[in-house]
Prior knowledge:
Blueprint: E1 5-9, E2 16-22, H1 32-35, H2 37-44, H3 52-55, E3 60-64, E4 66-67, E5 70-71, E6 76-81, H4 114-121, H5 127-133, H6 138-154, E7 158-166, E8 169-170, H7 180-185, H8 196-208, E9 215-222, H9 238-247, E10 252-257, H10 260-263, E11 276-278, E12 282-284, E13 293-294, E14 297-298, E15 303-309, E16 320-322, E17 329-331, H11 342-365, H12 370-386
Antiparallel strand pairs: 1-2, 2-6, 3-6, 4-5, 7-8, 7-9, 9-15, 10-15, 11-12, 13-14, 16-17
Bound molecules: ligand EPS.
Amino acid sequence: MKTLRFLSAGESHGPVLTVLLDGVPAGLPLVPAEHVDPWLRRRQGGYGRGRRQVIETDAARVLAGVRAGRTTGAPLSLQIENRDWRNWETIMSPEPGGEPRKRALTKARPGHVDLAGGIKYGHKDLRDVLERASARETASRVAAGAVALRILAEAGVKGSARVVHMAGVPCDGGMDWDRLDALDDSPFRTFDTASEDAIRARVDQAKRDGDTLGGVVEARFRGVPVGLGSHTQWDRKLDGRLAQAVMSIQAIKGVEIGDGWQNATVPGSEVHDPVFHDDGRGYYRPSNRAGGLEAGITNGEELVVRAAMKPIATLMRPLPTVDVVTHEPADAARERSDTTAVPAASIVVLAMTALVLADALLEKFGPDTVRELRERVAAHRAYAAAY
Ligand code: EPS
């Protein structure tokens, strides 16, 4: 992300998460309670979450870049408080010295950052790596992504996030832009309410078994202008940029654009989307197996990105591991955790795809202000339809 730049800092049990977003155009209406906090709440929700979410009530506070409800064009800084920090103040203290560290974690959890990160950064208290690897960090991504969604909305682009497979149960049920509220009403963020009982039963069983579960989530955007990204260089291709951003999310192990995996199994005549033109509508494709991207450039169809989430690595019935201090066999550490966080992951995937898409939008249209963005997108849409 070179035009819209995003960085964050903050540990899972530190005092705050800090978000920096550089390159936001001036004049963007931005009121955290209205535009950011609802997304933070959605990320906190979903069936299968642990007790931490009872402690936290995530809300974003603006530290820089907004005056009187509008962005100024200066770097945007947001802060999210970790309420749980009060319970961890001594353990997480940055001050040197003091009593030996409490709650040192030495029994590396298979599948988590613990062992590789401990070796890499030279820590024997694995908390020094796990605190930053924790999915708590995804609250920062969602706050930044909510701003990206605001930028996209100014350009006529709308995003959505849903779960299409969870706990081993398929729950696609098809996309329905007119019923997005139903996703907020579903504890699994799915339109397929008929599958909910089966998913709930599996999550409940996994919790009883001390186990965890994964799933597949989808982020989708409509109104995407044709021509974002580029075919000209590997690192400018938008599909590659999306995959990197989505793969960087904790526990995401697979990314698909459109019908990616299915398309690999059938002939090209059943994969590529035929093109039509209509004077009012411009170019269009009745099917969208490409998921809105051809050769790394948006083609004007809905952008569809799916991501596979592995089960969370902290198991209450732990796997065998080794204590990194004694080198003795041990049961992996048990930290309070979630049984599953697939519905939350859908919001994080939406946030990361929104950031990449907004970056590509700002790169193409180069606006300093939201007014310039709107004008340039409208002119480009007219050009592309008549092309
Ligand atoms: C996480 C472990 C749990 C999750 C956390 C991610 O945290 P805790 O140990 O404090 O209960 O709740 O996720 C969040 C705090 C969050 O806001 O998403 C982990 O180990 O990754």
